Amino acid sequence: MIKLATVSPCYNEEEVLRHSVDRLTALFERMIAEGLISGDSMMVFVNDGSRDHTWQLIRELHQENKFVRGINLARNVGHQNAIMAGMMTAKDWADAIITLDADLQDDIECIPQMVKHFEAGNDIVYGVKVSREADPMMKRISAQAFYKLQSSMGVESIYNHADFRLMSKRSLEMLATYKEHNLYLRGLIPQIGLQTTTVDDVISEREAGASKYTLKKMLALALNGITAFSVKPLYLIFNIGLLFLVIALCIGCYVIYSLAVGTAVQGWASLMLSIYLVGGFILISMGIMGTYIGQIYTEAKRRPLYHIQEIL
Predict the structure, then answer these.
(1) How far apart are CA 192 and CA 312, in angstroms?
(2) What is this structure's pTM?
(3) Of 23, 53, 110, 194, which cross-links 199 as Cys (Cβ 3.0–4.6 Å)?
(4) Pairing label, strands 4-10, 96-99
């Protein structure tokens, strides 16, 4: 019988938190009765600098519910860092940890399956989304496009997997040795190796409130995921540069031919087109290289990922 901990990052989740705790409590009690987990298992909520009453609510729930523990970060550090803070703290409290968002849009009925896979010898169990009907259409389209893009860029990850996963204490100890500051856990955890498997995750609608994962945050995560694990964009710049060189040679040949036959006409349109085309390519290239330089700058400073203000 294992000691299980769920870890959920929370940012302004006061509307949904009590309902989520009630659902997880019912699941915990059922799993304890079935002998899947021990009675001292827990649910850990990481307050990521919320501006509402999320931390006060976690305090209340901690007093009311024997399963609830809390971690209060000193400031908002973002979804990935908050998950890392929860995992690195809770790994000393449990045999295995399951990370899931506080809104419980992931299928919590997968958790018993995850535990059984863990007992069968798997150190990491990924929740893979088999249905995203509850997500808005734009989010579904952008998510599918992102997974395909990062695959084409050579980023090793689990297709349609977000951050709903079980990890053993052993795998968490190995994860702790990775010192990246630009965290992209979906790409980092597959680097660990060990025995893994998956469970089917059917996404449901939020019970209350709205998702705090805005389009801006999703794009930032996507950019970080690609630049942290792939240098293909840099090679792409080189290949496009070669293409522009070929185009320039072709234009040069055409100009020489036009001069030879006397049909050359000085044109404003072709000149402007060339300037904007080459200028746009140069600016995009500088932006891509600047992103990599920014990542190096962040890593070189070696600042802490988070500070824990209080633990319940």
Answers:
(1) 30
(2) 0.70
(3) 110
(4) parallel
